[in-house]
Design a protein that fits this description.
alpha/beta, FAD/NAD(P)-binding domain, five-stranded parallel sheet, about 25% helix, about 20% strand, globular, binds flavin-adenine dinucleotide, binds NADPH dihydro-nicotinamide-adenine-dinucleotide phosphate, binds 3-(1H-indol-3-yl)-2-oxopropanoic acid
Amino acid sequence: MPPYFAPGMECLGKAGNESFMTREPFPTFVEGAIIVGGGPSGLAAAACLKMKGVPSLIIEKSDGIGSLWKYKAYDRLHLHIPKQFCELPYYAFPEDYPLYPDRKQFVDYLENYFQHFDMWAKFNTKVSTASYDPYSSCWKVKTQPSEADSEGERREYRAKWLVVASGENAEPYTPEVEGLKDFRGSVVHSSNYKTGAGYARQRVLVVGCGNSGMEIALDLSNFNAEPSLVVRSPVHILPREIFGTSTFAVAMRMMKSFPLWFTDACLVWYTWAMLGDTTRYGFKRPSDGPMTIKCKQGKTPILDVGTFAKIKSGAIKVCPGLKYVTPDGALFENDQFVKFDAIVLATGYRSNVPQWLKDDSGFFTAEGLPKNHSKGTWKAERGLYIAGLGRKGILGATFDAKYIAEDLSRAYASESHKRLICPLQSR
Ligand SMILES: Cc1cc2nc3c(=O)[nH]c(=O)nc-3n(C[C@H](O)[C@H](O)[C@H](O)COP(=O)(O)OP(=O)(O)OC[C@H]3O[C@@H](n4cnc5c(N)ncnc54)[C@H](O)[C@@H]3O)c2cc1C
Ligand SMILES: NC(=O)C1=CN([C@@H]2O[C@H](COP(=O)(O)OP(=O)(O)OC[C@H]3O[C@@H](n4cnc5c(N)ncnc54)[C@H](OP(=O)(O)O)[C@@H]3O)[C@@H](O)[C@H]2O)C=CC1
Ligand SMILES: O=C(O)C(=O)Cc1c[nH]c2ccccc12
Protein backbone atom coordinates (compact mmCIF):
# COMPACT_ATOMS: atom_id res chain seq x y z
CA MET A 1 0.00 0.00 0.00
CA PRO A 2 1.51 3.33 -0.94
CA PRO A 3 2.25 5.57 2.02
CA TYR A 4 -0.40 8.12 1.20
CA PHE A 5 -3.14 5.62 1.93
CA ALA A 6 -1.63 4.29 5.09
CA PRO A 7 -3.59 4.48 8.34
CA GLY A 8 -3.01 7.72 10.15
CA MET A 9 -2.71 9.66 6.93
CA GLU A 10 -6.39 9.58 6.21
CA CYS A 11 -7.95 12.86 7.17
CA LEU A 12 -10.99 11.63 8.93
CA GLY A 13 -10.78 13.90 11.93
CA LYS A 14 -10.47 12.81 15.49
CA ALA A 15 -11.69 9.45 16.68
CA GLY A 16 -14.60 8.97 19.04
CA ASN A 17 -17.72 11.00 19.13
CA GLU A 18 -16.31 14.31 17.90
CA SER A 19 -18.46 15.81 15.18
CA PHE A 20 -17.34 16.69 11.67
CA MET A 21 -17.10 20.29 12.89
CA THR A 22 -13.82 19.40 14.58
CA ARG A 23 -12.36 17.45 11.68
CA GLU A 24 -8.71 17.81 10.99
CA PRO A 25 -7.78 19.64 7.80
CA PHE A 26 -6.73 17.61 4.78
CA PRO A 27 -2.97 17.28 4.66
CA THR A 28 -0.90 18.83 1.92
CA PHE A 29 1.93 16.57 0.85
CA VAL A 30 5.23 18.34 0.42
CA GLU A 31 7.77 16.80 -1.84
CA GLY A 32 11.21 17.03 -0.28
CA ALA A 33 11.56 18.81 3.05
CA ILE A 34 9.50 21.03 5.30
CA ILE A 35 11.67 23.71 6.87
CA VAL A 36 10.37 25.33 10.06
CA GLY A 37 11.63 28.91 10.17
CA GLY A 38 12.56 31.47 7.55
CA GLY A 39 15.61 33.02 9.19
CA PRO A 40 19.19 32.70 7.90
CA SER A 41 19.34 29.00 8.86
CA GLY A 42 16.10 28.05 7.09
CA LEU A 43 17.09 30.05 4.00
CA ALA A 44 20.54 28.47 3.88
CA ALA A 45 19.03 25.00 4.21
CA ALA A 46 16.45 25.67 1.45
CA ALA A 47 19.16 27.03 -0.90
CA CYS A 48 21.55 24.13 -0.30
CA LEU A 49 18.73 21.64 -0.84
CA LYS A 50 17.69 23.39 -4.03
CA MET A 51 21.26 23.26 -5.33
CA LYS A 52 21.10 19.49 -4.81
CA GLY A 53 17.76 19.24 -6.61
CA VAL A 54 15.65 18.78 -3.49
CA PRO A 55 12.53 20.94 -3.18
CA SER A 56 11.42 22.33 0.16
CA LEU A 57 8.71 24.42 1.76
CA ILE A 58 9.60 27.00 4.41
CA ILE A 59 6.92 27.54 7.04
CA GLU A 60 7.40 30.85 8.83
CA LYS A 61 5.20 32.39 11.49
CA SER A 62 6.13 35.96 10.68
CA ASP A 63 5.01 37.89 7.59
CA GLY A 64 8.28 37.39 5.73
CA ILE A 65 11.78 36.07 6.04
CA GLY A 66 14.43 37.24 8.55
CA SER A 67 11.95 38.24 11.26
CA LEU A 68 14.55 38.31 14.04
CA TRP A 69 16.62 40.86 12.16
CA LYS A 70 13.60 42.74 10.83
CA TYR A 71 11.42 43.05 13.92
CA LYS A 72 13.26 41.91 17.03
CA ALA A 73 16.48 43.85 16.86
CA TYR A 74 17.46 47.37 17.82
CA ASP A 75 18.11 50.03 15.21
CA ARG A 76 21.87 50.39 15.65
CA LEU A 77 22.53 46.65 15.26
CA HIS A 78 25.24 45.57 12.81
CA LEU A 79 26.71 42.15 12.21
CA HIS A 80 29.46 41.97 14.81
CA ILE A 81 31.61 39.59 12.88
CA PRO A 82 32.76 40.43 9.33
CA LYS A 83 30.40 39.82 6.45
CA GLN A 84 32.41 36.94 4.96
CA PHE A 85 31.52 34.89 8.08
CA CYS A 86 27.81 35.69 7.79
CA GLU A 87 27.29 35.11 4.08
CA LEU A 88 24.80 32.37 3.22
CA PRO A 89 25.84 29.67 0.72
CA TYR A 90 25.97 30.26 -3.06
CA TYR A 91 25.04 33.96 -2.99
CA ALA A 92 27.46 36.71 -2.03
CA PHE A 93 26.76 39.98 -0.25
CA PRO A 94 26.70 42.95 -2.64
CA GLU A 95 30.24 44.22 -3.19
CA ASP A 96 29.48 47.69 -1.84
CA TYR A 97 28.40 46.34 1.55
CA PRO A 98 30.64 47.42 4.44
CA LEU A 99 32.63 44.91 6.49
CA TYR A 100 29.92 44.92 9.17
CA PRO A 101 26.57 45.34 7.35
CA ASP A 102 23.79 46.97 9.31
CA ARG A 103 20.46 45.44 10.19
CA LYS A 104 18.66 46.84 7.14
CA GLN A 105 21.40 45.69 4.76
CA PHE A 106 21.34 42.21 6.24
CA VAL A 107 17.53 42.02 5.95
CA ASP A 108 17.74 43.19 2.30
CA TYR A 109 20.33 40.52 1.64
CA LEU A 110 18.09 37.83 3.16
CA GLU A 111 15.13 39.00 1.10
CA ASN A 112 17.19 38.99 -2.10
CA TYR A 113 18.48 35.56 -1.19
CA PHE A 114 14.92 34.29 -0.92
CA GLN A 115 14.05 35.78 -4.32
CA HIS A 116 17.26 34.61 -5.95
CA PHE A 117 16.56 30.96 -5.14
CA ASP A 118 12.85 31.31 -5.90
CA MET A 119 11.96 29.54 -2.67
CA TRP A 120 8.59 28.25 -1.58
CA ALA A 121 7.29 29.62 1.69
CA LYS A 122 4.12 29.88 3.73
CA PHE A 123 4.21 33.05 5.81
CA ASN A 124 2.01 34.04 8.76
CA THR A 125 1.90 30.33 9.52
CA LYS A 126 3.00 28.99 12.85
CA VAL A 127 3.95 25.36 13.31
CA SER A 128 1.98 24.22 16.35
CA THR A 129 3.11 20.59 16.35
CA ALA A 130 5.37 18.35 14.32
CA SER A 131 5.40 14.63 14.97
CA TYR A 132 6.61 11.56 13.18
CA ASP A 133 3.99 9.21 11.80
CA PRO A 134 5.49 5.72 11.68
CA TYR A 135 2.67 4.37 9.47
CA SER A 136 3.47 6.68 6.61
CA SER A 137 7.14 7.34 7.55
CA CYS A 138 6.35 11.04 7.27
CA TRP A 139 6.51 14.08 9.48
CA LYS A 140 3.07 15.50 10.24
CA VAL A 141 3.33 19.25 10.60
CA LYS A 142 0.27 21.04 11.94
CA THR A 143 0.03 24.77 11.52
CA GLN A 144 -2.14 27.59 12.70
CA PRO A 145 -2.40 31.08 11.24
CA SER A 146 -0.45 33.73 13.07
CA GLU A 147 -2.38 36.49 14.80
CA ALA A 148 -1.73 38.84 11.88
CA ASP A 149 -3.60 36.55 9.50
CA SER A 150 -7.23 36.63 10.61
CA GLU A 151 -8.40 34.77 7.50
CA GLY A 152 -5.88 31.98 7.68
CA GLU A 153 -6.82 28.48 8.67
CA ARG A 154 -5.32 25.51 10.42
CA ARG A 155 -3.50 23.24 7.99
CA GLU A 156 -1.57 20.03 8.02
CA TYR A 157 1.49 19.35 5.92
CA ARG A 158 3.35 16.11 5.53
CA ALA A 159 6.84 15.40 4.30
CA LYS A 160 9.47 12.73 4.53
CA TRP A 161 12.00 15.19 5.87
CA LEU A 162 11.75 17.92 8.45
CA VAL A 163 14.35 20.63 8.99
CA VAL A 164 14.17 22.46 12.33
CA ALA A 165 15.36 26.05 11.75
CA SER A 166 13.32 27.91 14.34
CA GLY A 167 16.38 29.53 15.90
CA GLU A 168 18.22 29.72 19.20
CA ASN A 169 16.59 33.08 19.74
CA ALA A 170 13.00 31.99 19.15
CA GLU A 171 11.48 33.31 22.39
CA PRO A 172 12.64 36.20 24.56
CA TYR A 173 13.66 34.96 27.99
CA THR A 174 12.39 36.98 30.95
CA PRO A 175 13.71 35.79 34.30
CA GLU A 176 11.62 35.71 37.49
CA VAL A 177 12.73 38.81 39.34
CA GLU A 178 10.98 39.59 42.60
CA GLY A 179 9.01 42.84 42.42
CA LEU A 180 9.43 43.30 38.66
CA LYS A 181 5.71 43.32 37.88
CA ASP A 182 5.15 46.15 40.39
CA PHE A 183 7.87 48.38 38.89
CA ARG A 184 6.27 51.71 37.97
CA GLY A 185 8.41 52.59 34.94
CA SER A 186 8.59 50.90 31.56
CA VAL A 187 9.99 47.36 31.30
CA VAL A 188 10.96 46.01 27.86
CA HIS A 189 12.86 42.98 26.68
CA SER A 190 15.81 43.72 24.41
CA SER A 191 13.84 42.14 21.51
CA ASN A 192 11.39 45.05 21.81
CA TYR A 193 13.99 47.76 22.35
CA LYS A 194 14.55 49.87 19.24
CA THR A 195 16.43 53.01 20.26
CA GLY A 196 17.39 55.12 23.25
CA ALA A 197 15.63 58.13 21.72
CA GLY A 198 12.76 58.10 24.24
CA TYR A 199 14.99 57.57 27.28
CA ALA A 200 16.88 60.90 27.49
CA ARG A 201 17.75 61.81 31.12
CA GLN A 202 16.12 58.63 32.42
CA ARG A 203 17.92 56.27 34.80
CA VAL A 204 17.72 52.95 32.97
CA LEU A 205 18.63 49.57 34.41
CA VAL A 206 19.87 47.16 31.73
CA VAL A 207 19.71 43.61 33.09
CA GLY A 208 22.14 41.24 31.35
CA CYS A 209 25.52 41.85 29.80
CA GLY A 210 25.57 39.69 26.69
CA ASN A 211 26.15 41.46 23.39
CA SER A 212 22.57 42.86 23.50
CA GLY A 213 22.84 44.38 26.99
CA MET A 214 26.27 45.85 26.28
CA GLU A 215 25.19 47.53 23.07
CA ILE A 216 21.84 48.74 24.41
CA ALA A 217 23.63 50.36 27.36
CA LEU A 218 25.88 52.15 24.83
CA ASP A 219 22.89 53.22 22.76
CA LEU A 220 21.10 54.58 25.84
CA SER A 221 24.18 56.53 26.85
CA ASN A 222 24.48 57.98 23.32
CA PHE A 223 20.90 59.23 23.70
CA ASN A 224 21.76 60.96 26.99
CA ALA A 225 20.13 58.42 29.26
CA GLU A 226 21.88 57.23 32.45
CA PRO A 227 22.29 53.48 32.01
CA SER A 228 23.37 50.97 34.67
CA LEU A 229 24.31 47.47 33.58
CA VAL A 230 23.80 44.31 35.66
CA VAL A 231 26.84 42.01 35.33
CA ARG A 232 26.15 39.00 37.52
CA SER A 233 28.50 36.27 36.18
CA PRO A 234 32.08 36.18 34.94
CA VAL A 235 32.16 37.02 31.24
CA HIS A 236 34.78 37.55 28.54
CA ILE A 237 34.86 40.97 26.98
CA LEU A 238 36.99 41.37 23.84
CA PRO A 239 37.48 44.41 21.61
CA ARG A 240 35.68 43.84 18.31
CA GLU A 241 38.96 44.49 16.47
CA ILE A 242 42.65 43.80 16.99
CA PHE A 243 44.88 46.29 15.12
CA GLY A 244 42.05 46.98 12.68
CA THR A 245 41.31 43.30 12.04
CA SER A 246 38.20 41.60 13.38
CA THR A 247 38.97 39.75 16.62
CA PHE A 248 36.73 36.95 15.42
CA ALA A 249 38.75 36.63 12.19
CA VAL A 250 42.02 36.64 14.15
CA ALA A 251 40.68 33.94 16.47
CA MET A 252 39.51 31.80 13.54
CA ARG A 253 42.90 32.06 11.85
CA MET A 254 44.80 31.27 15.05
CA MET A 255 42.59 28.29 15.86
CA LYS A 256 43.63 26.70 12.55
CA SER A 257 47.31 26.73 13.52
CA PHE A 258 47.46 26.81 17.32
CA PRO A 259 45.82 25.01 20.22
CA LEU A 260 42.70 26.59 21.69
CA TRP A 261 44.41 27.52 24.96
CA PHE A 262 47.05 29.50 23.07
CA THR A 263 44.45 31.39 21.00
CA ASP A 264 42.55 32.15 24.20
CA ALA A 265 45.70 33.31 26.00
CA CYS A 266 46.52 35.69 23.11
CA LEU A 267 42.96 37.08 23.04
CA VAL A 268 42.92 37.68 26.78
CA TRP A 269 46.41 39.21 26.76
CA TYR A 270 45.52 41.52 23.89
CA THR A 271 42.30 42.58 25.61
CA TRP A 272 44.24 43.35 28.76
CA ALA A 273 46.65 45.49 26.70
CA MET A 274 43.77 47.35 25.01
CA LEU A 275 41.14 47.66 27.71
CA GLY A 276 43.24 47.31 30.87
CA ASP A 277 42.13 45.35 33.92
CA THR A 278 38.41 44.77 33.25
CA THR A 279 37.88 43.24 36.72
CA ARG A 280 38.36 46.73 38.19
CA TYR A 281 35.15 47.74 36.43
CA GLY A 282 33.03 44.75 37.50
CA PHE A 283 33.85 42.28 34.70
CA LYS A 284 35.35 39.14 36.24
CA ARG A 285 36.90 36.77 33.69
CA PRO A 286 35.84 33.11 33.62
CA SER A 287 38.68 30.64 34.21
CA ASP A 288 38.17 29.08 30.76
CA GLY A 289 39.14 31.22 27.76
CA PRO A 290 36.63 32.92 25.41
CA MET A 291 36.90 30.51 22.48
CA THR A 292 36.99 27.47 24.80
CA ILE A 293 33.70 28.66 26.32
CA LYS A 294 32.23 29.34 22.87
CA CYS A 295 33.18 25.83 21.73
CA LYS A 296 32.15 24.05 24.95
CA GLN A 297 29.05 25.99 26.05
CA GLY A 298 28.15 28.06 23.00
CA LYS A 299 28.22 31.25 25.08
CA THR A 300 29.41 34.13 22.89
CA PRO A 301 32.02 36.50 24.35
CA ILE A 302 31.18 40.17 24.37
CA LEU A 303 32.59 41.86 21.28
CA ASP A 304 32.93 45.39 22.56
CA VAL A 305 31.89 48.19 20.20
CA GLY A 306 32.58 51.09 22.57
CA THR A 307 30.59 50.27 25.70
CA PHE A 308 33.67 49.60 27.79
CA ALA A 309 35.08 53.09 27.16
CA LYS A 310 31.77 54.51 28.44
CA ILE A 311 32.02 52.29 31.51
CA LYS A 312 35.55 53.54 32.16
CA SER A 313 34.42 57.13 31.82
CA GLY A 314 31.57 56.53 34.27
CA ALA A 315 28.83 57.24 31.71
CA ILE A 316 27.62 53.66 32.15
CA LYS A 317 27.59 52.16 35.65
CA VAL A 318 28.12 48.49 36.38
CA CYS A 319 26.03 46.75 39.08
CA PRO A 320 26.27 43.25 40.55
CA GLY A 321 23.39 40.73 40.47
CA LEU A 322 19.86 41.85 41.28
CA LYS A 323 18.21 40.93 44.60
CA TYR A 324 14.82 42.42 43.86
CA VAL A 325 13.04 45.29 42.17
CA THR A 326 10.84 47.83 43.97
CA PRO A 327 8.26 50.12 42.35
CA ASP A 328 10.93 52.79 41.82
CA GLY A 329 14.30 51.06 41.85
CA ALA A 330 16.33 47.95 42.52
CA LEU A 331 18.36 46.38 45.31
CA PHE A 332 21.59 44.68 44.30
CA GLU A 333 23.60 41.85 45.80
CA ASN A 334 25.95 44.37 47.44
CA ASP A 335 22.82 45.63 49.29
CA GLN A 336 22.92 48.96 47.47
CA PHE A 337 19.58 50.43 46.46
CA VAL A 338 19.40 52.57 43.29
CA LYS A 339 16.41 54.40 41.84
CA PHE A 340 15.43 53.74 38.19
CA ASP A 341 12.90 55.13 35.72
CA ALA A 342 12.98 52.22 33.24
CA ILE A 343 14.26 48.67 32.86
CA VAL A 344 15.55 46.87 29.77
CA LEU A 345 15.77 43.09 30.11
CA ALA A 346 18.67 42.00 27.92
CA THR A 347 18.39 38.55 29.45
CA GLY A 348 18.61 36.48 26.29
CA TYR A 349 16.46 34.01 24.45
CA ARG A 350 15.38 30.40 24.39
CA SER A 351 14.68 27.86 21.66
CA ASN A 352 10.96 27.08 21.23
CA VAL A 353 11.49 23.54 19.91
CA PRO A 354 9.95 21.85 23.01
CA GLN A 355 6.72 23.77 22.37
CA TRP A 356 6.04 22.23 18.97
CA LEU A 357 8.35 19.32 18.12
CA LYS A 358 7.24 15.95 19.45
CA ASP A 359 10.51 14.04 19.39
CA ASP A 360 11.19 11.29 21.89
CA SER A 361 14.55 10.25 20.46
CA GLY A 362 16.51 12.11 23.13
CA PHE A 363 18.25 14.26 20.56
CA PHE A 364 17.26 17.56 22.21
CA THR A 365 17.88 18.88 25.71
CA ALA A 366 14.89 20.06 27.77
CA GLU A 367 15.81 23.58 26.59
CA GLY A 368 15.28 22.58 22.96
CA LEU A 369 18.92 22.60 21.83
CA PRO A 370 20.77 19.57 20.44
CA LYS A 371 22.68 17.62 23.05
CA ASN A 372 26.35 17.31 22.32
CA HIS A 373 26.45 14.55 19.79
CA SER A 374 29.67 13.10 18.50
CA LYS A 375 28.30 13.14 14.94
CA GLY A 376 27.31 16.80 15.10
CA THR A 377 24.18 18.72 15.95
CA TRP A 378 22.51 18.78 12.54
CA LYS A 379 21.03 15.30 12.12
CA ALA A 380 18.62 13.38 14.31
CA GLU A 381 16.65 10.27 13.39
CA ARG A 382 13.83 9.43 10.98
CA GLY A 383 14.50 12.23 8.52
CA LEU A 384 14.80 14.98 11.12
CA TYR A 385 17.47 17.63 10.53
CA ILE A 386 18.49 20.70 12.51
CA ALA A 387 19.98 23.95 11.19
CA GLY A 388 21.32 26.79 13.31
CA LEU A 389 20.89 25.33 16.79
CA GLY A 390 24.56 24.42 17.33
CA ARG A 391 25.39 27.79 18.95
CA LYS A 392 27.94 28.71 16.28
CA GLY A 393 26.26 31.79 14.82
CA ILE A 394 25.35 32.24 11.17
CA LEU A 395 28.58 30.59 10.05
CA GLY A 396 27.64 27.43 11.96
CA ALA A 397 24.19 27.49 10.36
CA THR A 398 25.70 27.55 6.86
CA PHE A 399 27.77 24.47 7.70
CA ASP A 400 24.65 22.75 9.04
CA ALA A 401 22.81 23.61 5.81
CA LYS A 402 25.55 22.10 3.64
CA TYR A 403 25.73 18.88 5.69
CA ILE A 404 21.94 18.59 5.71
CA ALA A 405 21.67 19.03 1.93
CA GLU A 406 24.42 16.49 1.32
CA ASP A 407 22.79 13.87 3.51
CA LEU A 408 19.15 14.58 2.73
CA SER A 409 19.71 14.66 -1.03
CA ARG A 410 21.13 11.15 -0.86
CA ALA A 411 18.05 9.93 0.99
CA TYR A 412 15.84 11.84 -1.47
CA ALA A 413 17.51 10.20 -4.45
CA SER A 414 17.09 6.73 -3.00
CA GLU A 415 13.44 7.45 -2.20
CA SER A 416 12.73 8.97 -5.58
CA HIS A 417 11.31 5.83 -7.16
CA LYS A 418 8.46 5.73 -4.63
CA ARG A 419 8.08 9.47 -4.35
CA LEU A 420 4.69 11.02 -4.64
CA ILE A 421 4.66 14.38 -6.33
CA CYS A 422 1.79 16.53 -5.19
CA PRO A 423 2.14 20.19 -6.11
CA LEU A 424 1.53 22.62 -3.31
CA GLN A 425 -1.79 24.37 -3.47
CA SER A 426 -0.29 27.74 -2.84
CA ARG A 427 3.12 29.30 -2.65
C1 LIG B 1 20.45 40.78 18.22
C2 LIG B 1 21.19 39.61 17.62
C3 LIG B 1 22.31 39.81 16.84
C4 LIG B 1 23.02 38.74 16.30
N1 LIG B 1 24.15 38.99 15.56
C5 LIG B 1 24.83 37.96 15.02
C6 LIG B 1 25.99 38.20 14.22
O1 LIG B 1 26.40 39.34 14.02
N2 LIG B 1 26.63 37.15 13.69
C7 LIG B 1 26.21 35.87 13.90
O2 LIG B 1 26.83 34.94 13.39
N3 LIG B 1 25.12 35.61 14.66
C8 LIG B 1 24.43 36.62 15.23
N4 LIG B 1 23.33 36.39 16.02
C9 LIG B 1 22.92 35.01 16.26
C10 LIG B 1 21.61 34.65 15.52
O3 LIG B 1 21.30 33.41 16.03
C11 LIG B 1 21.71 34.75 14.02
O4 LIG B 1 21.92 36.05 13.64
C12 LIG B 1 20.55 34.28 13.14
O5 LIG B 1 19.44 35.16 13.05
C13 LIG B 1 20.09 32.92 13.45
O6 LIG B 1 19.34 32.48 12.34
P1 LIG B 1 18.23 31.37 12.48
O7 LIG B 1 17.58 31.26 11.16
O8 LIG B 1 18.80 30.16 13.09
O9 LIG B 1 17.21 31.93 13.57
P2 LIG B 1 16.21 33.17 13.42
O10 LIG B 1 16.83 34.29 12.70
O11 LIG B 1 15.68 33.41 14.79
O12 LIG B 1 15.03 32.58 12.49
C14 LIG B 1 14.15 31.59 12.96
C15 LIG B 1 12.80 31.83 12.33
O13 LIG B 1 11.92 30.78 12.72
C16 LIG B 1 10.62 31.33 12.92
N5 LIG B 1 9.91 30.42 13.80
C17 LIG B 1 10.21 30.10 15.10
N6 LIG B 1 9.32 29.21 15.58
C18 LIG B 1 8.43 28.96 14.58
C19 LIG B 1 7.28 28.13 14.48
N7 LIG B 1 6.85 27.39 15.48
N8 LIG B 1 6.59 28.12 13.31
C20 LIG B 1 7.01 28.89 12.24
N9 LIG B 1 8.10 29.70 12.29
C21 LIG B 1 8.80 29.72 13.45
C22 LIG B 1 10.89 32.69 13.52
O14 LIG B 1 9.79 33.56 13.32
C23 LIG B 1 12.15 33.13 12.78
O15 LIG B 1 11.85 33.94 11.66
C24 LIG B 1 22.59 37.43 16.55
C25 LIG B 1 21.45 37.22 17.34
C26 LIG B 1 20.76 38.30 17.87
C27 LIG B 1 19.55 38.04 18.76
N1 LIG C 1 25.63 41.42 16.14
C1 LIG C 1 25.71 41.82 17.35
O1 LIG C 1 26.35 42.81 17.60
C2 LIG C 1 24.95 41.15 18.43
C3 LIG C 1 24.91 39.77 18.60
N2 LIG C 1 24.12 39.21 19.56
C4 LIG C 1 24.07 37.74 19.73
O2 LIG C 1 22.73 37.34 20.02
C5 LIG C 1 22.70 36.25 20.94
C6 LIG C 1 21.86 36.63 22.16
O3 LIG C 1 22.55 37.66 22.88
P1 LIG C 1 21.90 38.37 24.14
O4 LIG C 1 20.55 38.85 23.77
O5 LIG C 1 22.88 39.34 24.65
O6 LIG C 1 21.68 37.18 25.17
P2 LIG C 1 22.77 36.33 26.02
O7 LIG C 1 22.10 35.06 26.34
O8 LIG C 1 24.06 36.30 25.32
O9 LIG C 1 22.96 37.18 27.34
C7 LIG C 1 21.97 37.22 28.32
C8 LIG C 1 22.54 37.91 29.53
O10 LIG C 1 21.50 38.06 30.50
C9 LIG C 1 22.01 37.70 31.76
N3 LIG C 1 20.91 37.33 32.64
C10 LIG C 1 19.93 36.43 32.43
N4 LIG C 1 19.10 36.40 33.49
C11 LIG C 1 19.57 37.29 34.39
C12 LIG C 1 19.16 37.71 35.68
N5 LIG C 1 18.08 37.18 36.28
N6 LIG C 1 19.89 38.64 36.33
C13 LIG C 1 20.97 39.17 35.74
N7 LIG C 1 21.43 38.83 34.52
C14 LIG C 1 20.73 37.89 33.85
C15 LIG C 1 22.98 36.58 31.47
O11 LIG C 1 23.84 36.41 32.54
P3 LIG C 1 24.38 34.97 32.99
O12 LIG C 1 25.50 34.67 32.05
O13 LIG C 1 24.78 35.19 34.39
O14 LIG C 1 23.21 34.01 32.86
C16 LIG C 1 23.66 37.15 30.24
O15 LIG C 1 24.64 38.08 30.59
C17 LIG C 1 24.16 35.99 21.28
O16 LIG C 1 24.61 34.95 20.49
C18 LIG C 1 24.86 37.28 20.91
O17 LIG C 1 26.21 37.11 20.57
C19 LIG C 1 23.36 39.99 20.37
C20 LIG C 1 23.39 41.35 20.24
C21 LIG C 1 24.22 42.03 19.31
O1 LIG D 1 26.89 36.40 17.53
C1 LIG D 1 26.85 35.23 17.81
O2 LIG D 1 26.04 34.76 18.59
C2 LIG D 1 27.74 34.26 17.27
O3 LIG D 1 27.58 33.15 17.66
C3 LIG D 1 28.84 34.62 16.32
C4 LIG D 1 30.01 33.90 16.78
C5 LIG D 1 30.30 32.60 16.48
N1 LIG D 1 31.47 32.29 17.11
C6 LIG D 1 31.93 33.35 17.79
C7 LIG D 1 33.07 33.51 18.55
C8 LIG D 1 33.29 34.74 19.13
C9 LIG D 1 32.38 35.75 18.94
C10 LIG D 1 31.24 35.59 18.15
C11 LIG D 1 31.01 34.37 17.59
